[in-house]
Fold:
Amino acid sequence: MTKDILNLPEESLRLQIKDLAEETRIKFARKGLSDIFDILSEVAFLIRKPLDTNELSGFSTYFEEQFIVFLNSNFTLGHERYTGAHELYHIIYNADILKKEKILIDDDKHKEEDIKAHVFASEFLMPEDYVKEVFFKIVNEDKDNILPRHIVRMHCYFKVSYKAMLKRLIQLDLCSINKYGKLADICSLDNTEQLRNLVKREGYGIELIIPSNELYVPREYIEFIKSNYERGNISYENMKNSFKFIGLTPDDFGYGYPPEEDY
Structure:
């Protein structure tokens, strides 16, 4: 098995994005922010909502001079946090594209930026130097002797998914790539219960490996939609669709259908 099969980036690209991730982390640390959800709430309207699909992890958009990040909380919390870091890259480093095109479609045109966003998420949530420090503190095994319980300790520490942590350890040469198949098997859908039991045996909660199904909509987003409608910036239908997206209706706020749009 090679690193190409795991979709790990070239080292030159990784080091380039590593610098961006470190700069970004320091920038928000100066504000006292370290959690990815808190950081996203600082730079955008963060909406977390479960969707009945596994085809969409999340997306960012730009609407009426405001960035909005949506995360599908039907994924595991570890996966959702990774998606959040991915979207943070787009918000910070693809702002001009979002302002122009409103949303980044996963196509050939934006493929390079999407790859960079994936690398950024890994570097941001699992900083190289700190991963190595924690590894030698709570695992300290030869890379050929890594077991699932070692991955569990690390992924729970860094609050990412089991598979993301496994790939990161292989990338940093802390785990043999030849162990990937066997180590990854426990996080397959067929072995969900086995992974949960292992996490519990290691003394951790299972929050990271189950969907949070969190429904979070900032009050500011609701006021943002209402004020834009009242100022005439968006139509009633636009307001209705914006509220529908978060499970609300204009009627919930006393807005009746305007006669001039009744056609």
In short: The CA atoms of residues 202 and 225 lie 45 Å apart. The chain has a mean pLDDT of 93. The first helix runs from residue 11 to 29.
